[in-house]
Predict the structure.
Amino acid sequence: MAADLAEIKGMIEAALPGAEVEVIDKTGTGDHLRATVVAAQFAGLSRIAQHRLVKAAVKERFDDGTIHALSLKTGEPG
Amino acid sequence: MADAELKEKIEELIAANPVLLFMKGTPEMPRCGFSMRVVQVLDSLDVEYGAIDVLPALQPLREVTAEISDWQTFPQLYVKGELLGGADIVEEMFDSGELAEVLGVEQPESAPAAAAPPAQSPPLQIE
């Protein structure tokens, strides 16, 4: 079952209001995604903490097997 | 709920090894492209590190690292007792020079991506 990229993007945006989120399908198979997330909420957090926030937002889709891999690039705006 | 004995053992290993990599396979024979990428970064920095092959006990180790660091995927690189990140973070920090700084080593002159062609086959990666 392929992930709905818009849904994944929406889940991240809901967890991090105001974030700029881009989600792409790396392999064309719909289960290995790459997301770029720029959020003010990341200020002062280590990268691992930033990634945890994003992964927690989409945990449900990992748990149900929709997504197998989500590679992340996170940053603060500006 | 993670196995308490295994968790204790892993916590001891993390405390005892300033640079510790949990990976699929071994540094000599990585069994996953992401693990291989982290090994290549560490090798290019010429840093001493411990490596643990998670494959023989993948599920129990997932449960343990979920409790210790709230992270369940491998590879995982621990530096001075803290989870630094997986392949994405390690590569990003290597490229920016932050990893060399955190590890207290010199950044090599050229990043591996721009370095001489790899002697072995490159990591499998489908883009």
About this structure: Chain A is about 35% helix and 25% strand. The mean pLDDT of chain A is 92. The domain at 5-75 of chain A is CATH 3.30.300.90 (GMP Synthetase; Chain A, domain 3). The first strand of chain A starts at residue 20 and ends at 25.
